[in-house]
């Protein structure tokens, strides 16, 4: 799934993130090139796929108990 969405070059991060972590504009694309690169990554679709996979996994686990 990571390769499908072109995220295989991304750096891993611990999740969940720290409580009350403040994200800021300094984490947004700073140049037109960075903006164009981010526009080509379907983050919403990737997160939806992860959510669906997680739901399916836990649904199967519950049914096997």
Q: List the helices and strands in order.
A: HH
> pLDDT average, as an integer?
76
Please identify the structural class as seen in this structure. Answer: mainly alpha
Fraction of helical residues: 40-55%
How many beta strands in the DSSP annotation? 0
Low-confidence stretches: none
Shape: extended
Most strands sheet: none
- Count structural domains: 1
Report on the structure:
This protein has 65 residues and is mainly alpha-helical. The protein contains two helices and no strands.
Task: Give structural attributes.
mainly alpha; 2 helices; about 60 residues; about 45% helix; single chain
Summarize the structure.
45% of the residues lie in helices and 0% in strands.
């Amino acid at each position: 799934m990571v390769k499908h969405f072109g995220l295989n070059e991304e750096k891993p991060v611990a999740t969940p993130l720290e409580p009350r972590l403040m994200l800021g504009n300094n984490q947004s694309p700073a140049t037109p090139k960075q903006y164009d690169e981010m526009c080509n990554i379907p983050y919403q679709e990737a997160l939806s796929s992860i959510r669906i996979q997680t739901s399916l996994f836990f649904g199967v686990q519950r049914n096997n108990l």
